[in-house]
Amino acid sequence: MDNELIIEIQDLTKDYYDGGNVIQALKAANIKIFKGEMVAIMGPSGSGKSTLLYVLGLLHPPTSGVYIFKGQNILNFSREEQALFRNRELGFVFQSCDLLANSTVFENLELPLIYAESDRSVRRKKILDALGRVGLSHRVDHWSNRLSGGERQRAAIARALVNNPSLILGDEPTGQLDQKNTEIVVEQLRELAKQGFTVILVTHEEEIGDACDRVIRIRDGSVVSDGFEDTENITDETLRERVAVLAP
Ligand SMILES: Nc1ncnc2c1ncn2[C@@H]1O[C@H](COP(=O)(O)OP(=O)(O)OP(=O)(O)O)[C@@H](O)[C@H]1O
Ligand SMILES: [Mg+2]
From atom 31 of ligand 1, which residue's Cα is the shortest distance away? Predict the structure, then answer.
């Protein structure tokens, strides 16, 4: 792990407008995330976890604040550039895995590649590589609706990986899995973090938080702790050293 800063957000806010009401779902969040970290976002229901994840994933535009991704101010990108950025740099895994049912695993993983990779044999190689990372190479030509729940979620992770993104974002990716499959999926995400992918997971489960390098806790739209004490007043160098200890 080379302690490269992947994400830096400064005073990032997100308001939703619901009828005449303003809901401050995210209030001036300041967070730094480094390459190869596996970070959990935890907090009560309605506290703003998914909002934070969607804003980080550029699925929801923030209301104000700064978002730097690998040194680039990505909020200044055009919509088209943001879409390209999402396709190249980000992989998403959601709770209810959204694989297309009447398609094979191969076809599901091919979708995100169609925009990025025109050569069919290169696509096949990338798909097999991503499936190999989650131990599912033997399921490449299976119908996705015939996979077990755990296999389906691992296929969804493989789909998130297929473009070799910098960042994997999961919104309760194990929310519908039993304990055994949860452990397998968390173990695989850990392995990916070890290989240099950066992983951010929203979760309700303390055990998953324990398996992460760092837990960011949110309450009522505010970050109340982020695993580093006193982050306001310490230097980036000190932060990097702490991360190096957490995720050698
Ligand atoms: N599209 C939306 N329009 C209006 N309000 C929203 C919208 N999405 C979320 N909210 C509100 O923003 C707040 C934060 O919601 P968010 O979904 O981020 O919470 P969460 O922490 O993910 O909750 P949960 O654990 O239940 O998934 C809540 O008050 C929610 O009602
Ligand atoms: Mg949520």
Answer: 46
Report the separation in Å between the CA atom of 205 and the middle of ligand 2, taken as the mean of its atom positions.
Answer: 13
Task: Write down the pTM of the prediction.
Answer: 0.88
- What are the structural domains, with CATH classification, of the chain? 5-246 (3.40.50.300)
Q: Which of 13, 14, 27, 51 is the pocket-test mutation for ligand 1 (most atoms within 8 Å of CB)?
A: 51
Per-residue pLDDT of the chain (248 residues; tens, 9 = 90+): 457 999 999 999 999 999 999 999 999 999 999 999 999 999 999 999 999 999 999 999 999 999 999 999 999 999 999 999 998 899 999 877 678 888 999 999 998 888 777 788 999 999 999 999 889 999 999 999 999 888 998 999 999 999 999 999 999 998 888 888 899 889 989 999 999 999 999 999 999 999 999 999 999 999 999 886 544 555 666 666 655 655 44
HEC string of the chain equals CCCCEEEEEEEEEEEEEECCEEEEEEEEEEEEEECCCEEEEECCCCCCHHHHHHHHCCCCCCCEEEEEECCEEHHHCCHHHHHHHHHHHEEEECCCCCCCCCCEHHHHHHHHHHHHCCCHHHHHHHHHHHHHHCCCHHHCCCEHHHCCHHHHHHHHHHHHHCCCCCEEEEECCCCCCCHHHHHHHHHHHHHHHHCCCEEEEECCCHHHHHHCCEEEEEECCEEEECCCCCHHHCCHHHHHHHHHHHCC
**Atom from ligand 1 closest to the CA of residue 221:** 14
